[in-house]
User: What shape does this take?
Amino acid sequence: MTSAESTAIFTRSWSLYDLITEHNYMFHNEIYAEVARLLRLRDDAERYRLLDLGCGNARYLAPCLRQSPPALYEGVDLSEAALIEARGYLADLPDCRVTLTHGDLLTAVQSTGKTWDVIFTGFAVHHLTTADKVHFFEAVGRCLSEQGKLILVDVVREENQSRADYLQDYLKCMRDTWVKVPPDQLEEACTHVHDHDYPEHFSTLQAMATAAGLKASRIVNRYGQHHILLFARSSLPEL
Ligand SMILES: C[S@@+](CC[C@H](N)C(=O)[O-])C[C@H]1O[C@@H](n2cnc3c(N)ncnc32)[C@H](O)[C@@H]1O
Assistant: This one.
Protein backbone atom coordinates (compact mmCIF):
# COMPACT_ATOMS: atom_id res chain seq x y z
CA MET A 1 0.00 0.00 0.00
CA THR A 2 1.43 3.41 -0.95
CA SER A 3 0.62 6.73 0.73
CA ALA A 4 -0.90 7.88 -2.56
CA GLU A 5 -3.33 4.92 -2.57
CA SER A 6 -4.39 5.44 1.03
CA THR A 7 -5.14 9.13 0.44
CA ALA A 8 -6.76 8.79 -3.01
CA ILE A 9 -10.21 9.45 -1.52
CA PHE A 10 -8.94 12.83 -0.24
CA THR A 11 -7.03 13.66 -3.44
CA ARG A 12 -9.95 13.17 -5.81
CA SER A 13 -12.33 15.35 -3.90
CA TRP A 14 -12.68 16.86 -0.49
CA SER A 15 -16.49 17.04 -0.51
CA LEU A 16 -17.23 13.58 0.91
CA TYR A 17 -15.03 14.20 3.98
CA ASP A 18 -16.63 17.64 4.42
CA LEU A 19 -20.07 16.01 4.37
CA ILE A 20 -19.01 13.46 7.00
CA THR A 21 -17.54 16.13 9.28
CA GLU A 22 -20.43 18.57 8.80
CA HIS A 23 -22.72 15.90 10.31
CA ASN A 24 -20.14 15.42 13.08
CA TYR A 25 -19.96 11.67 12.48
CA MET A 26 -16.29 11.62 13.63
CA PHE A 27 -16.90 14.00 16.58
CA HIS A 28 -14.93 16.89 15.08
CA ASN A 29 -16.98 19.43 17.12
CA GLU A 30 -16.11 17.88 20.48
CA ILE A 31 -12.55 16.92 19.51
CA TYR A 32 -11.52 20.29 18.12
CA ALA A 33 -13.10 22.09 21.11
CA GLU A 34 -10.65 20.06 23.22
CA VAL A 35 -7.76 20.81 20.87
CA ALA A 36 -8.57 24.54 21.21
CA ARG A 37 -8.54 24.11 24.99
CA LEU A 38 -5.16 22.34 24.90
CA LEU A 39 -3.69 25.15 22.80
CA ARG A 40 -5.14 27.80 25.15
CA LEU A 41 -3.27 26.15 28.06
CA ARG A 42 0.03 27.18 26.42
CA ASP A 43 1.67 30.30 27.79
CA ASP A 44 3.53 31.07 24.56
CA ALA A 45 0.65 32.19 22.29
CA GLU A 46 1.94 34.08 19.25
CA ARG A 47 5.42 32.65 19.81
CA TYR A 48 5.02 28.92 19.31
CA ARG A 49 5.54 26.89 16.13
CA LEU A 50 2.98 24.30 15.06
CA LEU A 51 3.45 21.54 12.49
CA ASP A 52 0.18 19.99 11.23
CA LEU A 53 0.73 16.60 9.59
CA GLY A 54 -2.09 15.51 7.28
CA CYS A 55 -3.68 18.94 7.65
CA GLY A 56 -6.37 18.39 5.01
CA ASN A 57 -8.18 21.69 4.51
CA ALA A 58 -7.45 22.73 8.15
CA ARG A 59 -11.14 23.66 8.45
CA TYR A 60 -11.43 22.55 12.08
CA LEU A 61 -7.96 23.50 13.32
CA ALA A 62 -8.11 27.03 11.88
CA PRO A 63 -10.63 28.34 14.49
CA CYS A 64 -8.43 26.86 17.27
CA LEU A 65 -5.44 28.71 15.84
CA ARG A 66 -7.39 31.96 15.71
CA GLN A 67 -7.90 31.65 19.50
CA SER A 68 -4.22 30.81 20.15
CA PRO A 69 -2.25 31.99 17.13
CA PRO A 70 1.17 30.44 16.54
CA ALA A 71 4.07 32.45 15.11
CA LEU A 72 4.56 29.76 12.49
CA TYR A 73 2.13 27.18 11.09
CA GLU A 74 3.18 24.53 8.59
CA GLY A 75 0.58 22.17 7.16
CA VAL A 76 1.56 19.10 5.17
CA ASP A 77 -0.75 16.98 3.05
CA LEU A 78 -0.74 14.76 -0.03
CA SER A 79 -4.05 16.20 -1.28
CA GLU A 80 -3.61 19.32 -3.40
CA ALA A 81 -7.40 19.81 -3.40
CA ALA A 82 -7.35 20.03 0.40
CA LEU A 83 -4.34 22.37 0.48
CA ILE A 84 -6.05 24.82 -1.87
CA GLU A 85 -8.97 25.00 0.59
CA ALA A 86 -6.59 25.21 3.56
CA ARG A 87 -5.13 28.42 2.15
CA GLY A 88 -8.62 29.97 2.50
CA TYR A 89 -9.41 28.62 5.98
CA LEU A 90 -6.03 29.84 7.30
CA ALA A 91 -6.16 33.22 5.54
CA ASP A 92 -6.94 35.46 8.49
CA LEU A 93 -4.56 34.17 11.17
CA PRO A 94 -3.06 37.25 12.81
CA ASP A 95 0.74 37.60 12.69
CA CYS A 96 1.26 33.99 11.72
CA ARG A 97 3.52 32.77 8.92
CA VAL A 98 1.61 30.02 7.11
CA THR A 99 3.39 27.44 4.96
CA LEU A 100 1.50 24.70 3.15
CA THR A 101 3.55 21.82 1.81
CA HIS A 102 2.35 19.23 -0.68
CA GLY A 103 4.01 15.99 0.41
CA ASP A 104 4.13 12.91 2.58
CA LEU A 105 3.76 13.56 6.31
CA LEU A 106 6.37 11.00 7.37
CA THR A 107 8.96 12.41 4.97
CA ALA A 108 8.10 15.92 6.16
CA VAL A 109 8.57 15.18 9.86
CA GLN A 110 11.71 13.16 9.18
CA SER A 111 13.31 15.91 7.12
CA THR A 112 12.20 19.08 8.91
CA GLY A 113 15.10 21.26 9.89
CA LYS A 114 13.03 23.08 12.50
CA THR A 115 12.12 22.45 16.13
CA TRP A 116 8.36 22.43 16.79
CA ASP A 117 6.50 23.35 19.98
CA VAL A 118 3.32 21.58 18.89
CA ILE A 119 3.10 18.75 16.43
CA PHE A 120 -0.54 18.15 15.61
CA THR A 121 -1.98 15.39 13.50
CA GLY A 122 -5.67 14.67 12.95
CA PHE A 123 -6.98 11.37 11.58
CA ALA A 124 -3.92 10.69 9.43
CA VAL A 125 -1.44 8.50 11.35
CA HIS A 126 -3.72 5.44 11.18
CA HIS A 127 -2.92 5.28 7.46
CA LEU A 128 0.74 4.49 8.24
CA THR A 129 1.99 0.92 8.60
CA THR A 130 3.06 -0.14 12.09
CA ALA A 131 6.73 0.17 11.06
CA ASP A 132 6.13 3.68 9.73
CA LYS A 133 4.32 4.66 12.93
CA VAL A 134 7.55 3.72 14.78
CA HIS A 135 9.48 5.97 12.36
CA PHE A 136 6.86 8.70 12.86
CA PHE A 137 7.37 8.75 16.65
CA GLU A 138 11.18 8.61 16.25
CA ALA A 139 11.05 11.67 13.98
CA VAL A 140 8.69 13.51 16.36
CA GLY A 141 11.06 12.71 19.23
CA ARG A 142 13.89 14.37 17.29
CA CYS A 143 12.14 17.60 16.26
CA LEU A 144 9.82 18.36 19.21
CA SER A 145 11.11 21.18 21.41
CA GLU A 146 12.06 20.38 25.02
CA GLN A 147 8.64 21.47 26.37
CA GLY A 148 6.85 20.53 23.15
CA LYS A 149 3.66 18.48 22.83
CA LEU A 150 2.44 16.00 20.27
CA ILE A 151 -1.36 16.20 19.94
CA LEU A 152 -2.47 13.06 18.15
CA VAL A 153 -6.13 12.85 17.15
CA ASP A 154 -6.96 9.50 15.64
CA VAL A 155 -8.95 6.31 15.70
CA VAL A 156 -7.55 3.77 18.19
CA ARG A 157 -8.37 0.10 18.73
CA GLU A 158 -9.49 -1.21 22.13
CA GLU A 159 -6.72 -3.12 23.91
CA ASN A 160 -6.71 -6.73 22.61
CA GLN A 161 -9.11 -5.86 19.78
CA SER A 162 -7.98 -7.23 16.41
CA ARG A 163 -8.04 -5.05 13.30
CA ALA A 164 -10.72 -7.33 11.85
CA ASP A 165 -12.96 -6.85 14.92
CA TYR A 166 -12.27 -3.11 14.93
CA LEU A 167 -13.27 -2.85 11.25
CA GLN A 168 -16.41 -4.91 11.79
CA ASP A 169 -17.53 -2.53 14.58
CA TYR A 170 -16.52 0.68 12.81
CA LEU A 171 -18.09 -0.25 9.47
CA LYS A 172 -21.30 -1.30 11.23
CA CYS A 173 -21.38 2.04 13.03
CA MET A 174 -20.84 3.89 9.73
CA ARG A 175 -23.64 1.98 7.99
CA ASP A 176 -26.02 2.33 10.98
CA THR A 177 -25.45 5.99 11.87
CA TRP A 178 -23.97 7.93 8.91
CA VAL A 179 -27.49 8.14 7.48
CA LYS A 180 -27.07 11.55 5.80
CA VAL A 181 -24.32 10.25 3.50
CA PRO A 182 -25.76 9.08 0.14
CA PRO A 183 -25.45 5.25 -0.19
CA ASP A 184 -22.87 5.23 -3.00
CA GLN A 185 -20.63 7.69 -1.14
CA LEU A 186 -21.09 5.77 2.12
CA GLU A 187 -19.84 2.62 0.39
CA GLU A 188 -16.86 4.57 -0.98
CA ALA A 189 -16.06 5.71 2.55
CA CYS A 190 -16.48 2.15 3.92
CA THR A 191 -14.13 0.77 1.24
CA HIS A 192 -11.55 3.43 2.15
CA VAL A 193 -11.73 2.50 5.85
CA HIS A 194 -11.64 -1.24 5.11
CA ASP A 195 -8.63 -0.99 2.81
CA HIS A 196 -6.56 1.78 4.41
CA ASP A 197 -7.25 2.15 8.15
CA TYR A 198 -4.66 0.57 10.44
CA PRO A 199 -5.39 1.94 13.93
CA GLU A 200 -3.22 0.71 16.80
CA HIS A 201 -3.91 0.05 20.49
CA PHE A 202 -3.11 3.00 22.76
CA SER A 203 -0.54 0.83 24.56
CA THR A 204 1.26 0.26 21.23
CA LEU A 205 1.36 3.99 20.45
CA GLN A 206 2.53 4.63 24.02
CA ALA A 207 5.37 2.09 23.68
CA MET A 208 6.45 3.63 20.37
CA ALA A 209 6.42 7.10 21.93
CA THR A 210 8.36 5.98 25.02
CA ALA A 211 11.02 4.36 22.83
CA ALA A 212 11.34 7.67 20.96
CA GLY A 213 11.90 9.64 24.19
CA LEU A 214 8.30 10.80 24.70
CA LYS A 215 7.83 9.25 28.14
CA ALA A 216 4.68 11.15 29.17
CA SER A 217 1.40 10.27 27.49
CA ARG A 218 -2.29 10.58 28.18
CA ILE A 219 -5.68 9.90 26.64
CA VAL A 220 -7.18 13.39 26.94
CA ASN A 221 -10.60 12.19 25.87
CA ARG A 222 -12.32 9.80 23.50
CA TYR A 223 -15.58 9.71 21.58
CA GLY A 224 -16.12 6.11 20.60
CA GLN A 225 -12.98 5.06 18.75
CA HIS A 226 -11.99 8.69 18.07
CA HIS A 227 -9.28 9.69 20.53
CA ILE A 228 -7.36 12.80 21.54
CA LEU A 229 -3.90 11.74 22.72
CA LEU A 230 -1.17 13.89 24.18
CA PHE A 231 2.54 13.05 24.30
CA ALA A 232 5.52 14.94 25.76
CA ARG A 233 9.11 14.24 26.83
CA SER A 234 8.73 14.21 30.59
CA SER A 235 5.58 15.69 32.07
CA LEU A 236 2.12 16.78 31.04
CA PRO A 237 0.10 19.60 32.62
CA GLU A 238 -3.06 19.01 34.64
CA LEU A 239 -5.93 19.25 32.17
C1 LIG B 1 -9.23 12.17 7.45
S1 LIG B 1 -8.35 13.53 6.78
C2 LIG B 1 -8.06 14.55 8.23
C3 LIG B 1 -7.96 16.00 7.95
C4 LIG B 1 -7.82 16.87 9.20
N1 LIG B 1 -6.50 16.70 9.79
C5 LIG B 1 -8.90 16.56 10.20
O1 LIG B 1 -8.58 16.25 11.35
O2 LIG B 1 -10.07 16.65 9.86
C6 LIG B 1 -6.76 12.78 6.57
C7 LIG B 1 -5.80 13.70 5.83
O3 LIG B 1 -4.49 13.16 5.94
C8 LIG B 1 -3.89 13.18 4.68
N2 LIG B 1 -2.88 12.12 4.66
C9 LIG B 1 -3.04 10.80 4.95
N3 LIG B 1 -1.87 10.15 4.85
C10 LIG B 1 -0.96 11.09 4.51
C11 LIG B 1 0.45 11.05 4.28
N4 LIG B 1 1.14 9.89 4.35
N5 LIG B 1 1.08 12.20 4.00
C12 LIG B 1 0.40 13.38 3.91
N6 LIG B 1 -0.92 13.47 4.09
C13 LIG B 1 -1.59 12.35 4.40
C14 LIG B 1 -5.02 12.99 3.68
O4 LIG B 1 -4.71 13.47 2.39
C15 LIG B 1 -6.13 13.80 4.35
O5 LIG B 1 -6.09 15.14 3.95
About this structure: The mean pLDDT is 94. The first helix runs from residue 3 to 6. The pocket of S-adenosylmethionine is lined by residues 3, 6-7, 10, 17, 54-56, 60, 76-79, 82, 104-106, 122-124, 127, 153 (CB under 6 Å). The chain has eleven helices and seven strands.
